[in-house]
Amino acid sequence: MFLAVGYSLCYFVSTKCSNLVVEFHKFFPIPHIGKSIIALLIGLILPLIINIFYRKWRWVKNEIQKYGDHLDELLMRAFEEEKLVQLTMSNGKVYVGRTLQAFEPLSEYEYIKILPVQSGFREPIKHKVTFTTNYTKAYWKHLEENPSDIQVNSYRGIVLSVSEIVVASFFDQDLYNTFNKLPTMHQDAEKK
Hints:
single chain, 192 residues, 2 domains, six-stranded antiparallel β-sheet, 8 helices
């Protein structure tokens, strides 16, 4: 196919710029060398152009949609859309953060990496989430007190075991605040 395109381009150039073709053949007196060079250049450049429009991420996304599980899809969407995720671990610890990695489809990954925004715990009986650590405030406070400390700037997140994740969902702080202001069914029953 590339050779056919090369032939067509050579024909077009030879009809429009015959002097250029004559000069080219003085330096390269090999028959059909122009077609071969053009085919080679197309073969080298075309994949680069295609990859600009069809990045690996689309392939990963398609493979996760075909073969991945719901956790894969959730984490992939969170990574792609830069949304926060809330992960409840088997020990009751809760993390909210940004996913820091894309996932390779069809590979068993044991750990995920997030940049935590806040963390806390889920109460064992009522399962209400209580946040105890606001990482963002801690980062800023540390930088204000130690402006020359670049270690906070180079913080790369935390690694969590996938097998320990019990619940995973998107997280929206405004929605969380709204739900916490609403009375529970138990509180409504006590009022009556």
